[in-house]
Each structure stands twice: as C-alpha cells, then as structure tokens.
Amino acid sequence: MVDHDVVIIGAGFSGLYQLHKLRELGFDATILEAGPEVGGTWYWNRYPGARCDIESIEYSYSFDPELEQEWNWSERYAAQPELLAYIRHVAAKHDLRKDIVFGTRVTGLDFDENSCRWTVRADDGVDRTARFVIAATGCLSVPTQPDIDGVEDFDGDIYWTWDWPEGGVDLAGKRVAVVGTGSSGLQTITAIAPDVAQLTVFQRTPVFAIPAFNREIDDELAEVKSRYREFRAESKVTRGGAHCAEPEPKFFDEYSPDEVITELSRRWTDGGLCYQQSFLDLVQDPAVNKAAADFVADRIRDKVNDPVLAEKLIPTTYPIATKRMCVDTGYFEVYNQDYVTLVDLREDPLHRVTAHGILAGNTEREFDVIIFATGFDAMTGALQAIDIRNGEVTLREKWSEGPRTYLGLMVAGLPNLFTITGPQSPSVLSNMLTSIEQHVDWIADVLEVMRARGQRRIEPDVQAENGWVDITNDTADMTLFPQAASWYMGANVPGKRQVFLPFVAGVDVYKQICDGVAVADYHGFEITA
What we know:
The chain is of the alpha/beta class. The protein has helices at 13-24, 41-44, 65-70, 80-93, 183-192, 218-225, 228-235, 257-270, 286-303, 307-312, 381-384, 395-398, 432-453, 462-477, 507-519, and strands spanning 4-9, 29-32, 100-101, 106-112, 117-122, 127-135, 157-160, 175-179, 198-203, 209-211, 326-328, 340-344, 350-353, 357-360, 363-366, 369-372, 387-390, 393-394, 417-419, 457-460, 525-528.
C-alpha cells in the first residue's frame, strides 16, 4: 500500500498545475510545500522591484480558458504582488489548498525496488509513501550565500533579496549598499534608489539590460483575450515559448550594416527579451553577437552621463545573451544621481564586511543597511538539496560531474521520479509557463497510459540518457553560451561542475522531440508492471 499515488514537491506554478491536472485524471496527489503559502518563487522573492521578465499575458496559465478571461493583468510586466495574487487566485478557484501540506520541507527520497514505491521524508517527521514523486522544486529556489568574512560583525541591518521581510523595509534616509547586479540586484537598485539617502552598488560583472517599456495593457489584453486559444497555440511552437514581434531574420550576412542597426533598433524599441532573438545566429556567430552587444553598449553610453562610469557598466567579458539578460525600468539612469556610487569589484575586490560597512580595495565605506543580491544555485540546487537515493544510486553522486537526465524529465537509476523544467530541458531559456505546462501535460499523459496498462514502474534507459546528455552538450557547444561564466553554467556556485544546464535548441524543437518519444510508445523509457 502507498499513502498517495503521487507526491509533488513544491506549490509554485508547476506544482499547482500538476496537482490540478492529476486530480482531474483521478489520481490521489498531494503537494508538500516548504513555505506557508502557495507561490514558490513568487512567494519568496518579494524584494523591492521584483517582477517577471516575460510579459504577463504570456507568463500565465493557458489550461483554464475561463481563468484567462476573468483575470486582468494591469501591467506589461507584472510585479511580484500581482503575480502572487494571481497564483493565490488560481489555488482558490480550483480548491487546491486542501491537498497541500504547508510548512513541510522534503529532506529525502528513498526508492524501494521490491514495493516499487518512494518513501518521502520531510522535516515534519512524517514519512509518506507514493508510487510516483514529481519534483516541482523550481529552477531558482536555492539561494547562494557567498562566504564573506565579517557578515556577523556588521552593526547595521543585513537583508537578502531571497528572504525579504514580508512587511517590507523602510530605507528612507539610510545609507544602503547593494552587493550584486543580476536581475534581483538590478530590480532592487532601481526600486530603492528614490528613497535612500545614499546608495552604493558593488558590481562584480556588468549586465546587459534591455528597457521594459512597462505600461498598462488594457487594450492589448482585450485584443489577446479575443483570440487567446490561438495565441497560446502559437506560443507553444516558438523558440522561446512566447511571442516576439516578428520571426527573426535568418542570417546576419543577408543584411547590410544599416539594416542590422534598423533591426536592432526595432527590437530595442519594442523592449524586453525579444532583443536577443534579433537574429537567429546571435548566440552562434561572434560577429552577429558583437553587433548586438555594441548596439546595447552605445545605448548605455547614451543613458549614463559620466562616460567613465558608463564604461564600467558595459559588459566586455562575455557575449551578449550568454548570461541572463535583464529587463530594466530605469536601472542605468540611477547612476546619474549624485548620491549613487558604483564600486567595481574587479578594481577594488570585496575583502570583508566590517562593523560599520564594507571594505573593498583599500577603502572602507560605511552603511546603515547592506542588501545581498547574490543569486541562486540554479536548476540543480533544489534537487541536490534533497537526499534522493535508490539503494546505492544517489542523485548527488550521479550528478557530481553535471546533471544526467533523459529529456530533462527523468534520471536513469531513479525510477518513478519526474522533474518539471529540470536541467537539460528548455526551462530557464524559455517562458517558464509554456515549459511548465508542456512538462506537466507530458507527465500526466504517461501516468495515465501506465494506469490504463496496469504498469507501475518507469525509468529511462541508460543509453537514452547518455544520448540526451550528449545532445544537450553538443548543441550548447555549437553556441557562444559556454563562453560566459554564468549561472546557466553553474559558474556562480563554488565547486559546482561547470556544464551548460538548459537545452538550448528551443521550445519548439524540444516539444517535437517529447511528442515523438510519446508517439513511439515512450521510446527510451523502460515501463513495466
């Protein structure tokens, strides 16, 4: 006997839809969620300025046509409070909370070959058994905490963007330091700049940021609602799982230099991440990439009054789009304020936190508040934080040299365990909601097929897994992505093996592969009674 057909780990976007889908199919499913509420990433990441970098119209569920019509997004890029309100609304609409155990962090998974079931261990001291486990743990859910000397010595207040107080923080009139300039840092810096007395940004690596041109979207939303079904179908067969203004031109060398600038200008004016799809070979051809990077560099120079400071804010050590690009709402303009200072950690390394501030280079700067925006152990961190094992086979050992999966959905040696938007799937290179729904639907379909056939066990063939790892690595090696020390590569986590984590060929290609595997009676999987 088992306690549940399925245990789902995590009550973010993926976990909630997976629960809803399985309940509709008649499975006994439950979610274990570490937090006190639904939301996942959008519950925990409530720092100032937090918002999605995919347009709200796209960054939403498509499985419920009624929901699409009744929910009205207020902005092009929804902020965290609106995203959390949306997720809470979905949970209430579909009565999902009754099958969620909150405040319960999964610590271990043990598979028993004889009974063909998982034992799910959690920090509430209760062991639960399930035929299947689905990890909806999120790609950016385990924060990194750099080992910085002296943090405990600081006399002021320290905050982490991933653990921001629910009631907010009053920064008015305070001397504030922000360490980190990824998406979280950039959004925080932009949001708090008008309130603080003094703001100092400690930058290790500059970022490419494209303006959001955020706005109210009443008219746009009404137009999309009139054809939402068609709109969603189109998204599922795009490269990134979301609409861009028009299909990308095919090859850079088909265009004159003036035409290249015209196309880049159009993408810049449209705003958002579609800029990185200006040309199909932007992340493959160094010349194309340089043209796109140079264009953004010139826009940064236009925005920042101090030419010396502008150069420090321009990335030069990696190709554009090979690190996560940011969507900004006035970030570079912040540096035109006389109370804002940039500390370039390449010139003045951060030595330690002191009782009164931060020592970088030969200078100690004093602060009332330090905010760390230091990122996440992306894609593999949440899974490896759980002790997952089948006898002598452990996920941590298996992934010690980088993740090994089949389709980013399962791992050989760990039967009946699925991962939603896991490593070696399009995941963070796509609109996550499109990828989440594709994975949830695929998993639900195979479980339904197995139930109809009286089958209890599914596991990838090692040969199929090896082939998929090779495909993932080989396609990444055809691009410029590996040239960047990015969290896509795990380079932000000391000691983590650097391999390219997502599947780079696109949502459209990936969906075709997954659909083909299913049509071929789940080729590459061993499914038994």
